[in-house]
Structures are given as structure tokens and as C-alpha cells.
Amino acid sequence: MILHAASIAALFVDQLTQAPVVVQCAQAAPEPEWKWWLGVLAPWIGPLLSGVVSIYVAWRVFHWQGKKDREQWLRDQKRVEWRELLDKVSAVSKPMTLARPKGTILKGQVKEGLVDLAQCLDDRVFIERQTLNEIYGQLTKCLEKMGAYTVDKESCDEFLQEDQGTEILSEIRDITESVRRAANTDVAKIAKVK
């Protein structure tokens, strides 16, 4: 056993003397230049980039909210215009359909009311013109008939009792219904947009 250990030691010493071993570490590769720049610029780029992104998000939200507010304002303006138009229609049709003493409705008042209604139709800015054209056509026909039938009459009461008068009343009711239908349709579309 001693011999065995001695032979191993001799072999080990023989190997060491034959080939001298030099241990060298591999030389470190130089760092790429971009890594150096990244290290220098990172403290600046991070906050700058987050600031730009924050400003962009705030700008988008501001414009989105502004668009939403403009659309709401337009919807409100349409409702106001419809309300004014319905008030004018009611002002024209109500006196003629209510029970009244004879001679209380002068033809000038009725014509004036219908002309005010026509002016109100012309003044609409936010309601689509196409929607108003049908109502305007009905109103024009009604005014023409009324003008032709009431030339020699002082009050509309006697005219409204005649056949032509009931025809005019029917047309005024049709105009009222057309305005209400158009208003309901348009306001329903406005409500769906929300």
C-alpha cells in the first residue's frame, strides 16, 4: 500500500515537471458603446418619456371630453328648437280648436300665427332642413287656402263653420301632428346617440 501511494505521488510529480501549466484568464471583451450611452441617458430618458406619454394621454382625454360636450350641446339646442316650434304650433292651433264665443278669432290673428310658425320653421338651425320641408309644404298650402277663402270675411269664426274652414282646421291639425311626429322621431334619435 505504501508502494501504491508512492507510485501515485511519483506519477503526479512527473506530470507536473513535464508540462508547466500557465493559467491565464480570458481578457474581458470591451463593453459596446451603446451600453455606455444607455447608462448615461437612462436617468434622463425615463422621466422625459413618461412626461411625454402623460401629456399625450391628457391631450386625448381633453379632446374626447370636448367632443362629447359639443355633441351634448348640439342635442340640447335641437331640443330647444323643437320646443319653440311646438309652442308656435300650439299657439296657432289651440285658439281654433277650443270652444269660444263667436267673433273672437280674427283672420289676421290666425294668419299672423301661421306666418310666425313659417318664420319659426325658417329660423331652425340645428334641426335638419329635410325634416322641416314637409311641414313647411303643408303650412304653405294651408296659408294659400286660408288666404283664398277668407278674403271677404272679418273673423275666422264664420269661416271655420263652413266646409272650407273645417278643411283648414284639419290641415292645421295635420301640421300639428307632423311637427309632433318629427319632434318625437328626432328627439328619439338624439336620445339613442347618448
Question: How is this structure best described in words?
Answer:
The structure is a single chain. This protein is mainly alpha-helical and 194 residues long. It has a domain at 59-193: Four Helix Bundle (Hemerythrin (Met), subunit A), CATH 1.20.120. Helix content is 80%, strand content 0%. α2 (33-97) runs antiparallel to α3, α2 (33-97) runs antiparallel to α6 (163-193) and α4 runs antiparallel to α6. The longest helix has 65 residues, at 33-97. The model has no long low-confidence stretch (mean pLDDT 76).
Residue-averaged pLDDT:
76
How many β-strand runs?
0
Question: Biggest sheet: strands, sense, closure?
Answer: none
CATH topology of the domain at 59-193: Four Helix Bundle (Hemerythrin (Met), subunit A)
- Portion of residues in beta strands equals under 5%
Form type: rod-shaped
Low-confidence stretches: none
Instruction: Assign the structural class, choosing from mainly alpha, mainly beta, alpha/beta, alpha+beta, or little secondary structure.
Output: mainly alpha
**Name of the CATH architecture of the domain at 59-193:** Up-down Bundle
Number of helices: 6
